[in-house]
Amino acid sequence: MRAVRLDAKGGPDDLRWTSVPEPVAGEGQIRVELAAAGVNFIDIYQRSGLYPVEFPFIPGLEGAGIVDQVGEGVSRWAVGDRVAWFSAPGSYAEFALVDSESAVAVPPDVDLEIAAAVMLQGITAAYLVRDAYPLSESDTCLVHAGAGGVGRLLIQMGVHAGARVFATAGTAEKQQSARELGAEVVSGYEDFVDVIQEAAGSRPVDVAYDGVGVVTFTRDLRVMRRFGTIVLFGQSSGPVAPLDLQELNRNGSLFVTRPTIFHYAAAREDLERYTAGLFEAIQKGWLDVFVGGRYGMDEAGEAHRALEARTTTGKLLLVPPAA
Questions:
Q1: What DSSP letter does each residue of 34-47 carry, written as one string?
Q2: Whole-angstrom Cα distance, residue 150 to residue 62?
Q3: Nearest partner of 317 among 298, 292, 284, judged by Cα
Q4: Other CB atoms within 10 Å distance of the CB of residue 137
Q5: Nearest to residue 63, comparing CAs of 106, 20, 28?
Q6: Torsion on CA atoms 52, 57, 59, 61, rounded to nearest 10
Q7: What's 132's DSSP letter?
Q8: Would you state the pLDDT for residue 199?
Q9: pTM over cut 0.85
């Protein structure tokens, strides 16, 4: 088969679309013919060596497709089933091996590319608003990077929950995109404290969903209500420095949590709960999963460059080129 292979840590140009041995489903595994693979920052971190991996290496964790081989001991799946996943190493390929317990069924009326696009970012948004801080109609939330893949979904989920939604984004075009999704107050990263306080008064935010990190975190403290919660789920601008916990006291006895999808979706029942809710929202039409870029797998380097440049909105996908 063909796959994107990386022989050593490097840049986008080191991602090569090439022939590799075809995998065979082992015990507890299914082999899936890829319809699409999602592109995520973790792929870049692994490619660059920030997250160590063994080489040669096929990147990609997220995707969707059709089961074409079932390993020993697997009773949940059959050849021809439509499945998606967010945690199967080697997904930048024509075929991927997926742990049978890590895959979820994709409804027949949900496009496989949309399923691939919504797994990692969608489950992240779902656990953030349902469990990390259960969002309600009485809440005011701040969503950073509101035009990004997770941010777009968070804004829509916040609006659907009846919450008041504020957002940040890096350009005027991205800020307009966040407004169109339903964010009431939108600003850039540099001035969000002033913009929010001018629009809604001093410290109006119950929860800040922050996947940006160092650029935003310390200023989040200044817009939070007493007993508010900062949910720091990413660090696209860099890691947050160690925090003097007295800052939480001084700013209103605040709470901070640093969650990860790999804990919240570790149990099979939680994985199914989150994805069932996502697919239902897509089917009902209130959750728009926006694919901001679609690349052939032989163009993986271009997709990585686009994501690193932070010029994209929504989700980037890789699709196998036609034979």
A1: EEEEEE-HHHHHHH
A2: 15
A3: 292
A4: 9
A5: 106
A6: -80
A7: I
A8: 97
A9: yes
d(CA 293, CA 305): 12
Whole-number Cα distances in Å, 20 to 2, 8, 37: 6, 16, 17
Residue 129: what residue type?
A: V
Helix (H, G, I), strand (E, B) or coil at 284: helix
Nearest CA to 300 out of 47, 101, 17, 48 is that of 17
CATH fold of 137-258 reads Rossmann fold (3.40.50)
77 pLDDT higher than 80: yes
- Residue pair 91/62 in contact by the 8 Å Cβ criterion: yes
- Residue 249 parent element (H or E): helix 246-250
Domain ranges of the chain: 2-119+263-319, 137-258
Tokens standing for residue 209:
């969903």
Q: Which residues of 38-73 are buried (b: 16+ CB within 10 A; e: fewer)?
A: bbbbebbebbeeeeeeeeebbbbbbbbbebebbbee
pLDDT in tens, 17-66: 999 999 999 999 999 999 999 999 899 989 999 889 999 999 999 999 99
Residues 230/259, Cβ–Cβ less than 8 Å = no
Percent of the chain beyond pLDDT 70? Answer: 100
313 pLDDT exceeds 90?
no
For the 2-119+263-319 domain, the top CATH level (class) is alpha beta
Query: Residue 211's beta-bridge partner residues?
Result: none
How buried is 134 (Cβ within 10 angstroms: 0-12 exposed, 13-18 middle, 19+ buried)? exposed
**Amino acid letter, residue 259:** P
Could you write out the DSSP letters of every residue in 41-72? HHHHHHHHTSS---SSB-----EEEEEEEE-T
Q: Which has the minimum average pLDDT: 67-76, 114-123, 182-191, 307-316? A: 307-316
* Cβ atoms of 127 and 274 closer than 8 Å: yes
pLDDT at 323 over 80: no
